[in-house]
Fold:
Amino acid sequence: MIMVLFSMQTVYAEEDAKESKQDTYNRLKVFSEILSLIESNYVEPVGNDTMIDGAIKGMVKALDPHTSYLPPVSYKEMQVETTGKFGGLGIEISIRDGVLTVVSPIEETPAFKVGIKAGDKIIKIEEESTLDMTLQDAVSRLRGETGTPVNITIFRESFKAPKEFTIVRDIIKVRSVIKKRYKKDIGYVKIRSFSKNTSSDLDKALDDLGKEGITKLILDLRNNPGGLLNQAVEVTDRFLNRENLIVYTKGRSEEQNMRFTSHDKVAGVTYPMIILVNGGSASASEIVAGAWQDLNRAVILGTPTFGKGSVQTIIPLSDGSALRLTTARYYTP
Structure:
């Protein structure tokens, strides 16, 4: 009886899969028909590339704010960003509740200097509304030739009306780690982003502070928009004993279900710590602060963080473009 039921379930599953494939085929047939009709009958000639790019952008927009299509130029720009030097205004942006929102300004950049803050809502770029604008379109409009201005209209809860800011584009050079010493024995380390050299830069900063005789540490993650997951894990690991769970991820495929634990490749840092966070602390910053909080390794001070609990995978495509796809959610210990 059990074997019969199992066989029937297998048959139903196969039929459901066939129906799903047939439905997808039918929808793609409709898409092809629409493409052909526009090509033949639209009032003005439109290139196939324009229409297909628009269709792809619409498809990923139906998913979540962090999934996006990166045309070849945008993909190259993104690769430059994670190396720590790129052109623009100096802000990390995202779509939140359907609105283009500043995750955080990067300190000592044009946006930071004119007073842009985490949580600001960008409602216009020049004279164009950002309503229904994709994240990638917004990034492309904000970037431009170094030395040229761009006007953005900001709404902030403390404003009575939206306010326009003029920001002059510049080359953004991000030192991911900076350090200071206070009152002889208090070390201060600011991590601005998690780029490819962050953990090694942190090692150098801690080594220098150790030689200066610090006994306590303040680690500042305020306005840190995140970055590379492996760097978040490496930074967290520096302050933990061996075999502590740092973060784990869950996705639809087995390869997206990962666990990251501390190891003993580097000497653990044992200073008592305070971690500073705010609404501009997002993604990788939240992984680091969350792990230390859950493991009682540090005291967390500040305001609620941004709240981005997903992992994106960059998948290169055959034409030099890429898909930035949300493939998993992450969980602290």
